[in-house]
Amino acid sequence: MIKHALQARRATDFAKWYQEVISEADLAEESGVRGCMVIKPWGYGIWERIQKLMDAEIKKAGIDNCYFPLFIPLSYFEKEADHVDGFAKEMAVVTHHRLKAVDGKLVPDPDSKLEEPLVVRPTSETVIGAAMARWVQSWRNLPLMVNQWANVVRWEMRTRMFLRTSEFLWQEGHTAHADEAGAMSEMLRALEMYRAFAEGPLAMPVIAGEKPEHERFPGAVTTFSIEAMMQDGKALQAGTSHYLGTSFAEAAGIKYQDKSGNQQLCHTTSWGTSTRMIGGVIMTHGDDDGLRCPPQIAPHQIVIIPMLREKDADEDQAVLDYAKSLKSKLDERTAFGEPVRALLDIRSEKAATKRWSWVKKGAPLIVEIGPRDVEGGKLALIRRDQLYNDDGRLATRFPEKQSFIEEAGALLEDIQSSLHREADLRLHDNIHRDITDIKEFYDHAGSYPGWVEVQWSKPSGAALDKIVEQLKELKLTMRNVPLDASPADGACYFTGEPAVERILIGRAY
Amino acid sequence: MIKHALQARRATDFAKWYQEVISEADLAEESGVRGCMVIKPWGYGIWERIQKLMDAEIKKAGIDNCYFPLFIPLSYFEKEADHVDGFAKEMAVVTHHRLKAVDGKLVPDPDSKLEEPLVVRPTSETVIGAAMARWVQSWRNLPLMVNQWANVVRWEMRTRMFLRTSEFLWQEGHTAHADEAGAMSEMLRALEMYRAFAEGPLAMPVIAGEKPEHERFPGAVTTFSIEAMMQDGKALQAGTSHYLGTSFAEAAGIKYQDKSGNQQLCHTTSWGTSTRMIGGVIMTHGDDDGLRCPPQIAPHQIVIIPMLREKDADEDQAVLDYAKSLKSKLDERTAFGEPVRALLDIRSEKAATKRWSWVKKGAPLIVEIGPRDVEGGKLALIRRDQLYNDDGRLATRFPEKQSFIEEAGALLEDIQSSLHREADLRLHDNIHRDITDIKEFYDHAGSYPGWVEVQWSKPSGAALDKIVEQLKELKLTMRNVPLDASPADGACYFTGEPAVERILIGRAY
């Protein structure tokens, strides 16, 4: 019987387990400000790794980073009607620019009321569109491709750390093109970048595909997403890419003179990923001992804990020297084409406390060094993804120091691919393609329902609304039409009409 | 007679020149949103370089990055009285969380009024203090040191790009310590980090010192700053570091149990630098041809322009191949301990247009390659900090390709130190220590007034107010008491009483 580091169990209370991982791995906490979280060093360190790796991919695609205003005047939103409808209901609105003290309390100064209220950006299509309209004159300026790393705010009634918070951090790419083909190709490039990023650095397998009509970004012609399967079988939308047609260009006036001298509207795209990905990583790789952090995004990949007994100063010094020399040797090694990130943990805590704090945080490799290791030229190694032996004891290994140094990079790469393999099997084993009765299936699917793929005729309007409503009663939603799904060859599950494609259905965050 | 790239001249209209550099170097532009700017790729690229290098210094000091909420409840501000007084007058206040359409116009929905308005953070002492109160229990948790990279908002009536905008980007460090000595030492460490950063990567010489009482951060015990001298002789405060005593700790409840088991208040610090530094770089290094970007923070250090004539495809291909091979060789070189950043500019613009765009942006080295260079194994090189010969023509050199590759790193380092040297001479030549009549001095100081250092008795209260008022009439302010100023040895310039220290006075941004 294993004594796990957490109280909650994934199998019995997934929601509670998720909160406990976040708290015990010291990733984030409630801030006291409604709907906003504090991202703590380990959580923010993961975000910094994500930023660094994703930013390199964005730059490689020839896209420049910029920064646009936090505030968007209301009038910008009024220009694109569908966009307003989609966002108007959940925005933070700035109405005053000064406070004054009244009876010892601070209140907004009525004299400082803004003529035009400002919205705190929920996304930046409108304000970036206004800039693009200034920047684009001729076909020579196209494609115009920018990205920003920023905070955005969407007022949420029910919040959940990393998954749905009123304020979150993200990147948003915005591009303008001469024609639909150029814009569609960029939209798909971004989608593929997200797919490869999820499967690579996050070790999180995903299904990339097109969202159904009613799940599109407000104002978009089409929206694509990557969907990951969490360990409770639910879907997490982990990134989206939109082709916006010419409607945002028309609202903002993004026009160019083509080679024949005619004025044309640009075709635009936008695409984004956010701190939500960290929630996905937790629910993909976490276990009953906390997070298992994929090595590529772990702020520290190898944590070295010297076992200082504080009895014999010479002995402690020898242990410390040995640990330091190990760290400096590891610093010279590489994994994933980058220098290995090793940390020497010299906090004044007990070694066991330190060990379990790193287990819960999910450091991929944990090394402990005691006097006997120094004598034998060895070390004690815990591999976070293979924590216990069959007998329920910690699966500690005792490699030679030198061979560990040489193998460290390969070990980290092995952990990364082993985490991916485990999640990939789970994803593909739990997409069900032979379900004839969705209600019955989910009624009996137990604790790990997974997703269902069905053929459908892709109706719109009232017919679509009816299907959406039916699914909603079962707490189900349509996720996406996988890019690599087989062609339809039968009848629509919902309407009985000839099907045109296959779509994934599941419970979702 | 040199024909400069800009219309405005530093010597005759510095303010207009500053705006023109920003626009012609494509650094930023007005956004259309009151007081907010759009930071364009070249400007944001400089900020990314600043972030990268500063972040490394912050991490080296053992400080962790976190992220705290954008919104701060009013009640947090009410806790620290001096802090409120200092900031309450210029904050963006969120009062509603939803919009609704009324007669086709969007308005804040009255039903969505917040019970407690939220302030968009002007700085984060209060909200980070609340987190620190949760995180600190015992002396073992100290020092607690965090930093965040974030946007902040201070409502400004008169704005100026990079120098004073309603929204700006910055880093803010916040630390809690067991005692005054620990906090003061961290406050001075951050100050020294800023001084070294300004003099190093920004090539911008500064004077580090203590601000006088009336210029302190609201609620601080003491504030230190770095002050840089712009090319119009005005001072720019380019970074500040504060010792906050125990008042913020008291307001937020940041307490720890000391080794004897007693509850103690923490001593806290905060320190920040912002996108304002980019304004400082422009006004320190810009000339009548645009920006001269210090190589350490230049997004591209060497720009290679192939001269394609579009007459002979083979010839163009040979030029392009030669340019590409040059770039790939430069990519292998280092400067300042980092890989050289070279760009091959293949935009479909005329070579002369490209050349002048990079001159105005301030790329440190501009390389042009034509068919004759390919034949001769040479290249045409423009060094941005030595743009013209004495005869007013561009000072183009024609080094061998191979020797340029070998010397590129050293050339960049030489440009960096030459920019610093030029600014350093200007700074030290224009601090006047023998002025007996400040009014008369500034009345006749002409276009380059510089600063005055005087001895003073450091009065406070009404006596200080009177001096501040006198100076204000001359549009002068006290900058700081330099850390390395000579000790006082005479009478106070203002009061005639025995002086206690020397203080810098100047016009300022």
Describe the overall structure.
The structure is a homodimer of 509-residue chains. With 509 residues, chain A is an alpha+beta fold. The first copy, chain A, folds into 3 domains: 14-74 and 123-285, BirA Bifunctional Protein, domain 2 (2-Layer Sandwich), CATH 3.30.930.10; 302-411, Anticodon-binding domain (Rossmann fold, 3-Layer(aba) Sandwich), CATH 3.40.50.800; 431-506, 2-Layer Sandwich (Translation Initiation Factor IF3), CATH 3.30.110. In chain A, 34% of the residues lie in helices and 25% in strands. Chain A is built from 14 helices and 27 strands. In chain A, strand 12 and strand 13 (235-243) form a beta hairpin. Chain A is globular. Chains A and B meet through strand 2, helix 2, strand 3, strand 4 and helix 3 of A and strand 2, helix 2, strand 3, strand 4 and helix 3 of B.
Feature tags:
EC 6.1.1.15 (chains A, B), ligase activity (chains A, B), aminoacyl-trna synthetase (chains A, B), Translation Initiation Factor IF3, 8-stranded mixed beta sheet, homodimer, Proline--tRNA ligase (chains A, B), 34% helix, 509 residues, Rossmann fold, alpha+beta, ATP-binding (chains A, B)
- Report the portion of residues of chain A in β strands: 15-25%
CATH topology of the largest domain in chain A: BirA Bifunctional Protein, domain 2
The end-to-end span of chain A amounts to: 32 Å
Distinct helical segment count of chain A: 14
Structural class per helix/strand content of chain A?
Answer: alpha+beta
CATH superfamily of the largest domain in chain A: Bira Bifunctional Protein, Domain 2
Question: Could you say how many structural domains of chain A there are in total?
Answer: 3
Largest interface: A-B, 68 and 68 residues
Poorly predicted regions of chain A are none
* Average predicted confidence as pLDDT of chain A: 95
**What is the makeup of the main sheet of chain A?**
8 strands, mixed
Question: Any idea what the radius of gyration of chain A is?
Answer: 26 Å
Helix percentage of chain A: 25-40%
Query: Please, what is the oligomeric state?
Result: homodimer
Record field, number of beta strands of chain A: 27
Shape of chain A: globular
| CATH level-two architecture of the largest domain in chain A | 2-Layer Sandwich
Spatial strand order of the main sheet of chain A: 3-9-10-16-13-12-11-26
Q: What is the CATH C-level name of the largest domain in chain A? A: Alpha Beta
Catalytic activity (chains A, B): tRNA(Pro) + L-proline + ATP = L-prolyl-tRNA(Pro) + AMP + diphosphate
Function (chains A, B): Catalyzes the attachment of proline to tRNA(Pro) in a two-step reaction: proline is first activated by ATP to form Pro-AMP and then transferred to the acceptor end of tRNA(Pro).
Subcellular location (chains A, B): Cytoplasm
Main location (chains A, B): cytoplasm
